[in-house]
Amino acid sequence: MWSVSLTLTTKSARLTLKRGDEVVEDEVWKFDEPAPKAEQRDIAECVFHDCYDLLNYSAHGQAQQ
């Protein structure tokens, strides 16, 4: 089983890829300026919708508009 997680805080973002319990990739970005909650929400929503479109296309062969 593969899993991807994104964690956003005001100070950093962390993106982790796991295969089972093994961490395959783990990246952390420190923000120069604190990220406002609205920006964190926008980033999270963008990532979710991009993943949704990718998975929907993979499952059904068509992009959603």
What is this structure, in a nutshell?
The protein is an alpha+beta fold. It has one helix at 37-60; strands at residues 2-8, 12-19, 22-30. The mean pLDDT is 94.
Q: Order of strands in the sheet with the most strands?
A: 1-2-3
Query: Measured on Cα atoms, how large is the radius of gyration?
Result: 14 Å
Helix content: 25-40%
Reported for the largest beta sheet, the result is: 3 strands, antiparallel
**How would you sum up the global shape?**
flat
Tally of contiguous helical segments: 1
User: Number of DSSP strands?
Assistant: 3
Strand content: 35-45%
The number of domains is: 1
Q: Could you give the order of the helices and strands?
A: EEEH
Termini distance? Answer: 29 Å
> Low-confidence runs (pLDDT<50, min 5 residues)?
none
> Structural class of the helices, strands and pairings?
alpha+beta
Mean pLDDT: 94
